[in-house]
Amino acid sequence: MATNTIVLQEEQYVAAPEPSRLRGLIKIARENPIGALGFLLVVVFIVMGALGPYLTPYSPTGVDASAQLDGPTLAHPFGTNGLGQDVLSRVLAGARLSLVIGAAAVGIGVIGGALIGVISGYFGGVIDSFIQRTGEAGAAFPGLILYLTLIAAIGRGVDTIIIGIAISAIIGGSRVLRSMTLVVKASPFVEAARAAGASELRILVTHIIPNVMPIIIVIASSAWGAAVLAEAALSFLGIGVEPGTPSWGADLQGRNVDDAKVGHWYLVAFPGMALSIVVLGFNLMGDTLRDVLDPRLRGSIR
């Protein structure tokens, strides 16, 4: 009697290759075109801030009495102000100031606030109480009064603006990161790591910080736009940078225009347009980063 032999062939499964990071970024850009536009505007701003002073057709601080308040022409596409300074050159040079102040203030404020918030939320107890009460006292102090106090102590200038904005960013960022740290701290994987004998420092470095990092990125992107706007507002009020320094806020003030020569729209339109586009770019990018990176919006923490 013949015996039927059945040969079972082992199925082989080949793992599909993971998409490259570039493809992943392209996919995110296609799914979030508004965020991609915001990112493009931010990149243009950074490039303009880095190279703007080298691209200016004229000196942004040079005075030309023969070209006062000239409208937009081929020689001066954005016109000239009351001192004969080329508005296009001042807009390009003003981007450098906004870039430096925004980057420094956000770098100090957001990183410092994130560190304080993570420490406060993770360790709790007396440390948490001290940090939170100090932050509440600082938040109750008006920002403008704080800035005027800094001016009286160390004088006007870029450093004073950076310190003032950074202090505000530290206070706001620490409270957000404290709340996020408390959520991550109560997660099952943190409790499992502690039960497995992991040290508190190891848990903090390998579990807490990586899970709050996306929130730090989102806060930084939004705070950068707010820092640019804050600098412009202070310079517009005449308490920001030193007079004559290329600044979008100072140019919006129009202090170089006599009362009898008002009505020159280009003096306000081009600096205001640059400021509006940059802040819009940061806000659009920040909203998209929040949707993509914020684990609370994804429904889980990874």
What does this structure look like?
This protein is mainly α and 302 residues long. Helices cover 69% and strands 0% of the residues. The chain has a single domain, classed as MetI-like fold (Orthogonal Bundle). It has helices at residues 21-31, 33-55, 87-123, 125-139, 143-154, 158-185, 188-195, 200-236, 248-253, 266-293, 295-298. The protein is flat and about 80 Å long. The model is unreliable at 1-18 (pLDDT under 50).
The CATH architecture category equals Orthogonal Bundle
Shape annotation:
flat
* Helix share, percent: 55-70%
Query: How far is the N terminus from the C terminus?
Result: 61 Å
At the first level of CATH, the class is Mainly Alpha
Keywords:
mainly alpha; MetI-like fold; disordered N terminus
List the helices and strands and how they pair.
Layout: H1 21-31, H2 33-55, H3 87-123, H4 125-139, H5 143-154, H6 158-185, H7 188-195, H8 200-236, H9 248-253, H10 266-293, H11 295-298
Helix pairs in contact: 1-2, 2-3, 2-10, 3-4, 3-6, 3-8, 4-6, 5-6, 6-8, 7-8, 8-10
Summarize, please.
The chain is mainly α and 302 residues long.
